[in-house]
């Protein structure tokens, strides 16, 4: 692409960026959005405990590989989180559950991909113990999960 076209494209993107920044600032000023974030965090905390409990049970109690254990823990926590986020966090029960579940699973799988990258990096690359590494990996994926679910899975 010639330099003139790149400058022109950049100039056209500026109003879009400004609109996006204005939307973000407006969203941050709404108390309802903060309350929703707190509810999401509460649901996420329950999913976090469920995820770590299932992961620890499978790794230490049954001797399952960390990747398989993380996948099983993810599925159990995913079910819990979908139900509570749909009914309580986003109060989005007027839309068909199957439609929301498909989007929720898509967002959650993207976050889970990030979770696995962080988990394996911490365990295999830095020697962090598996359960603390999983705790860090879940926390690292949480922002992606909230934004994706708020703006896509359960959008009002």
Keywords, separated by commas or semicolons:
156 residues; mainly alpha; 0% strand; globular
Describe the protein.
The protein has 156 residues and is mainly alpha-helical. The protein has five helices and no strands. α2 runs antiparallel to α5 (130-153), α3 (66-89) packs antiparallel against α4 (97-126) and α4 runs antiparallel to α5 (130-153). The radius of gyration is 19 Å and the shape is globular. The N and C termini lie far apart (39 Å).
Summarize this structure briefly.
The protein is an all-alpha fold. The chain is 87% helix and 0% strand.
Write the layout of secondary structure elements.
Elements: H1 3-28, H2 31-62, H3 66-89, H4 97-126, H5 130-153
Q: β content, as a range?
A: under 5%
Which structural class should the secondary elements be placed in? mainly alpha
How far is the first residue's CA from the last residue's CA?
Answer: 39 Å
Can you summarize the main beta sheet?
Answer: none
C-alpha-based Rg, rounded? 19 Å
Order of helices and strands: HHHHH
How many domain units?
A: 1
State the shape. globular
Q: How many DSSP helices?
A: 5
């Amino acid at each position: 692409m010639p330099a003139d076209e790149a400058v022109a494209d950049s100039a056209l993107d500026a109003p879009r960026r400004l609109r996006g920044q204005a939307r973000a600032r407006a969203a941050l000023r709404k108390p309802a959005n903060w309350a929703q974030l707190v509810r999401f965090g509460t649901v996420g905390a329950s999913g976090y405990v469920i995820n770590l409990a299932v992961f620890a049970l499978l790794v230490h109690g049954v001797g399952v590989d960390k990747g398989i254990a993380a996948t099983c823990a993810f599925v159990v926590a995913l079910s819990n989180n979908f139900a509570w986020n749909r009914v309580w966090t986003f109060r989005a029960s007027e839309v068909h559950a199957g439609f929301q579940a498909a989007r929720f699973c898509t967002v959650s799988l993207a976050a889970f991909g990030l979770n696995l990258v962080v988990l394996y990096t911490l365990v295999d690359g830095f020697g962090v113990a598996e359960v603390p590494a999983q705790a860090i990996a879940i926390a690292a994926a949480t922002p992606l999960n909230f934004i994706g679910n708020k703006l896509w899975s359960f959008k009002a």
